[in-house]
Amino acid sequence: MDRVGIIGVGMTKFGERWKKGLRDLIAEAGLKTIQDANITGDKIDAIYGGSMSAGRFVGQEHIGAVIADSMGLNPIPSSRVEAACASGGLALREAYLSIKGGEYNVVVAGGVEKMTDSCTEEASLTLGGAGDQEWEVFNGATFPGLYALIARRHMHEYGTTEEQMAEVSVKNHANAAKNPLAQFQFEVSREQVMKSPKVADPLKLLDCSPITDGAAATVLASEEVAKEYCDDPVWIDASAQATDSLAVHDRKSITGLNAAKVATEKVFKKSSYDRSEIDLAEVHDCFSIAELCALEDMGFVKKGEAGKAMEEGRFNLNAELPINTSGGLKGCGHPVGATGIKQAIEITKQLRGEAGKRQVDEAEVGLTHNVGGSGATAILHILSGGR
Ligand code: COA
After folding, report:
1. Active-site residue (options: 85, 230, 286, 293)
2. Tell me: the pLDDT tens digits for 215-229?
3. Mutate to test the pocket of ligand 1, among 205, 284, 289 (most ligand atoms within 8 A of CB)
4. pTM of the model
């Protein structure tokens, strides 16, 4: 069956973009990706855009139409997709499936969120909507609080330490410092993480991803069209998605995310690559503990051993398996609807050899791991360059 290639990528700088509105962010990322693909609007068949909650963050609904309108792409069919913080990953997957199914040849997959117009309290409540409203949010649970429960249980069962979690942030900030589009382009030390203010014990400020504005977009094409427009497309080798309970308390175990485990099994079953062939990955480090769980859920380390492996530097840039070379959600920022697309953009840039100071040597196969809420949705993609 025909492959699907990524022929264009573009994103805004992530951060507190006070002077840019939702439409400005969409237009900037959209224009960049279309220019990068070297394609004209009349060749685009459809748009899928991820946004978690533009209605609550900035009062704007009907995001599918807003995206086409802001990009000057009317009357192309344009749909918003939503899976909380995995909305971007879902947009990529829906775009991929629409080409794979033969309906379209060229599709834009993007994501956007304009979060900093809300104060932290409002943003926390809006983000909380991705959890269980009746049982978690109503009783005061926030996302930092839910991930703190996961961290405590992981510490209890496997002896994971706060210092080991801090190393996730140290690594991701070091990578973000090399990324000109990242929100936080500075390094932090383990001591700084450990001394940062407590948000939800044991998670501190520097264990948390921030509140961010940003947009990101890709152009996907069928194999024939991809080869016409691009000498070296990055191929979407496999895509998989899985679901779990909304509420953390409904799960048999909370030291990992079952949806991520199931999606991992599926994605490798579909892929022409196995784990040992993955050269780098972008994983969903919304909180430092989440990256440790992700590495265990995907089987890159044995259960309970991610903290120790992180401390040994095994996931640093140009180490055994570089993780979150973009800076991850922690350092690059987390505009929730855009994150899944940013992950695919980072892997694409790495596979094209365009990642600048954070380039991974001989990167050929990369993976993205995008999670919605506290793990109710997980979406994984494997991307490959060259062959
Ligand atoms: N990491 C590093 N620095 C951060 C930060 C973070 N996560 N969040 C804020 N800052 C910095 C700001 O840049 C600011 O620095 P400055 O004074 O030099 O300008 C300072 O800390 C205060 O920022 P402020 O926005 O007032 O912080 P806050 O206390 O209101 O919010 C959090 C901090 C951690 C509560 C907030 O970022 C948060 O809720 N993060 C989690 C988001 C989330 O749940 N996402 C979904 C995941 S599933």
Report:
1. 85
2. 999 999 999 999 999
3. 205
4. 0.98
